[in-house]
Design brief:
The structure is a single chain. This protein is mostly helical. The protein has a domain of 205 residues. Helices cover 77% and strands 2% of the residues. Strands 1-2 form a two-stranded antiparallel ribbon. The longest helix has 38 residues.
């Protein structure tokens, strides 16, 4: 035990944290996409696992072909929007349940992503050979770039969801029946929400491929769980700190913090020299714990309320 503890370097852990922040910012953008469907539309969209890889695949192949990374990013974003529209079409026009529509899209994207990358499982885009927007080889600039993207994404989302169309989308998720009665085309709103969600996920995949220096067909595997983890961690953290003062902008910001915290935990697991193959288990436990916190807090409050009420009744007798 002493030998194990002595092998752990606190300086080494601190040195890894900046890279965790950079990755957390990228995956925080992905988590914002998950938030749109999971919280605002109340839809579990599993197509994001494939869309994340699509963003990386499109970006890598375009950069290899000599396309400017900014242009590649825009094209990757558009591809993500189109993927979301496909999932929305399957759900709203063909009557396929949302979760199954997402699975079908994700399943199809595996082959599509392979085709995009010339039927190769991965494609390298080294920063030594190509101009990239962000790279793990230069962590401080990567953090600044990631933070810049996060600020722009949150600002655009805050503006959009404050518009009439954005408010209609949020209303659709809150109460579809009432929204329909108010003249809102809920099918259009669902397609729009899925498109926005997958567009953000594809953008995150685009940045992730450049950051890591390669695109991989399996890069989005488990992305939905990581996104949910970031959303749940961010919400619980935000509600604990801000309470009832937590507004929509605050939620978006704390979701980014959720992504960073997730990757800090991931780095901690690696620093403790635990098997990284167990990370999916740890992620599942983290998500389960943070999902249970609001419920358990509510149960505790109800228990105290019932106890107080029973005590008052006894005193009255």
């Amino acid at each position: 035990m002493e030998a194990y503890l002595s092998s752990l370097s606190l300086i080494g852990l601190i040195g890894r944290l900046p890279a965790s922040v950079a990755q957390g910012l990228i995956w925080g953008i992905m988590a914002l996409g998950v938030y749109v469907t999971f919280r605002l539309l109340d839809i579990a969209d599993l197509s994001v696992d494939g869309t994340f890889a699509t963003g990386g695949a499109v970006t890598a192949m375009l950069i290899i072909a000599g396309v400017n990374p900014w242009t590649s990013m825009i094209i990757a974003l558009i591809c993500g929007l189109l993927v979301g529209c496909v999932t929305g079409f399957l759900h709203t026009k063909l009557g396929i349940p949302a979760i199954l529509a997402g699975i079908l899209t994700q399943y199809a994207l595996y082959s599509i992503n392979l085709a995009i990358m010339g039927f190769k499982a991965n494609q390298a885009i080294s920063v030594d050979k190509y101009y990239l927007l962000i790279s793990s080889r230069n962590i401080p600039p990567a953090i600044v770039t990631g933070l810049g993207f996060v600020i722009v994404v949150i600002a655009v989302m805050y503006w959009f969801f404050g518009t009439e169309m954005g408010s209609a989308l949020r209303a659709t998720g809150c109460n579809p029946t009432m929204s329909k009665a108010q003249g809102i085309n809920i099918n259009t709103m669902k397609v729009l929400g899925l498109a926005i969600s997958n567009g953000l996920v594809s953008l995150a995949g685009c940045l992730s491929a450049q950051y890591s220096g390669f695109a991989d067909v399996k890069s989005g595997q488990g992305a939905i769980v990581i996104g949910l983890a970031a959303v749940i961690i961010g919400e619980v953290l935000g509600e604990s700190i801000m309470g009832k003062k937590l507004n929509f902008a605050g939620r978006l910001i704390f979701i980014i913090f959720g992504g960073i915290i997730y990757y800090v935990i991931y780095t901690l697991v690696l620093w403790l020299k635990l098997d990284p193959n167990l990370m999916k288990l740890f992620t599942a436990i983290i998500v389960a714990v943070f999902l249970a916190v609001p419920y358990l807090k509510g149960q505790a409050k109800n228990s105290f309320a019932r106890a107080g009420k029973n005590s008052a009744i006894k005193e009255g007798k």
